[in-house]
Amino acid sequence: MPIAPADAPRLLDAGDGGLVVEFGDAIDEGVNRQVIALADALDARALPGLREVVPTYRSLLVLFDPLALSRRALRDEVLALWPPQAGASEHKGCWRVPVIYGGEHGIDLDHVARLHGLTTQEVIDLHAGAAYRVYMIGFAPGFAYLGGLPEAIHTSRRSEPRLKTPPRSISIGGRQTAVSPPLEIPSGWHLLGQTPVRSYDPRRTGRPFLFAAGDTIRFAPVAPADYGALCRAAEAGEIVAQWEAS
């Protein structure tokens, strides 16, 4: 059994078929890179009995079949792979995601602008001008949590969450922004716009979830006429987000 190094992550049991590898206690890009690097390294090992790895902001949930892979053997594998080599498996490129901002598509845009003493166009420019890291997918199928929101538009969550928000909403909450799936979901975040992109689509064989932890996303404002055409294309099954390799 490998001896855990001093900087090794915490290993926490999660039922009889789960192990949580906890890297830290803060949202940090470097920590998230390590999470994703370990997930990729475990996937590459293709261990018999390894069912799934689920990256989050600062931890990795490893699901396994305890009849095929013992907890001790899995813990040994994790420690043997420590520290994970971030970088080799980083996703090289950026998703360009179209967004229509404001109006019925982003009912909180005016409020966010007033709150920060900005014009709505300044909020749009700030939001669309940043590059965002996908830290994790969770809460709802395809819901992408993004870090990198400009400080000028950091906005506390709503005091009273909405029970339903429009499908494919682009929202902000605290220091984060997010892409919602094509579902009506509850949310306490502020709605800035909508995208035609279906971040979750069960019709996409082999890739129902478009985004993955470690991806980079940039938003591209679009006009109403273009938005309608893109929505129709997405409904027909087309991926209307553009992948730009770096």
From TrEMBL:
Pfam families assigned to the protein according to its UniProt record, in alphabetical order: CT_C_D
Domain called Carboxyltransferase: residue spans: 9-211
Molecular functions (GO terms): ATP binding; hydrolase activity
Region (Disordered): 157-177
Alphabetical UniProt keywords: ATP-binding, Hydrolase, Nucleotide-binding
PANTHER family: 5-OXOPROLINASE SUBUNIT B
Protein name: Kinase A inhibitor
The encoding gene: kipI
